[in-house]
Amino acid sequence: MTTARYSKTMIVLHWVMAVLILAAWLTSEGGRHVRENPPVLHFWLGFSVLVLVIPRIISRLLGGAPEMEAPRRPLLDLAARAGHWVLYAFMILLPLTGWYAAGRLGVPVTFFGLPLPALAAPVQGAPGWIAEVHETGGTVLLWLAGFHAVLALWHQFVLRDGTLTRMSLVR
Ligand code: HEM
Ligand code: HEM
């Protein structure tokens, strides 16, 4: 059986960004630590996600995604599609809320040495609900991505429909 695949660009971006997201989560810190000792690596990894999601969306819109396998179960296919767009929403909103939180905490952020403007004025106490959304959202994304990965493995190894092959460079 020959399986339709995502474009090479999309496959590379998918796996590179999966690693970046995991690494951003692993390097994240909350609370007072962030003001005293900003997690620079966390900022850098998170920004890389925000930057790379742009070519990923363009590539997708330009036809980098293959057709769904024979749409036997329209509702499930719709759920898969919706799930992917939810992941995209997280890949955009999470770095933006983190950037905002950094501004509220008064922590400067740079990307490859380039100083980025603060999205919010610094405050003395707690950085507010958007920072909380970021902290919780970071972990929610990890759970969603984990669930997504389990579904992909289920498709590949139980339903044996070649789903993982669609996202693989290996023949
Ligand atoms: C996909 C990308 C990202 C993920 C998965 C992520 C995840 C997280 C998580 C889980 C926390 C909470 C850590 C804890 O409470 O122990 C956190 C905190 C934080 N992140 Fe991110 N983050 C991302 C991108 C960014 C970006 C781009 C920035 C900004 C430059 C940023 C700035 C911050 C700040 C300032 C905090 C502390 C917030 C506070 O203490 O209220 N993050 N992040
Ligand atoms: C080990 C972890 C992961 C595995 C095994 C995995 C597997 C897959 C597979 C097999 C597909 C193709 C589904 C299809 O047939 O259309 C896919 C698509 C997708 N995955 Fe993952 N994935 C993982 C992690 C992630 C992470 C961390 C994210 C982002 C938060 C993500 C976001 C997406 C998105 C948005 C799509 C739709 C195609 C696209 O627009 O790039 N995945 N994934």
UniProtKB/TrEMBL annotation:
Bilayer-spanning residue ranges: 12-28, 40-58, 78-102, 140-159
GO cellular component terms listed in the entry, alphabetical order: plasma membrane
GO BP: any one term: respiratory electron transport chain
Membrane topology qualifier: Multi-pass membrane protein
Keywords from the UniProt entry: Cell membrane, Electron transport, Heme, Iron, Membrane, Metal-binding, Transmembrane, Transmembrane helix, Transport
All residue ranges annotated as the Cytochrome b561 bacterial/Ni-hydrogenase domain in the record: 5-167
Entry cofactors: heme b
MF terms in GO: electron transfer activity; heme binding; metal ion binding
Localization (cell): Cell membrane
Family label: Belongs to the cytochrome b561 family.
Protein name per UniProt: Cytochrome B
Biological source species: Alsobacter soli
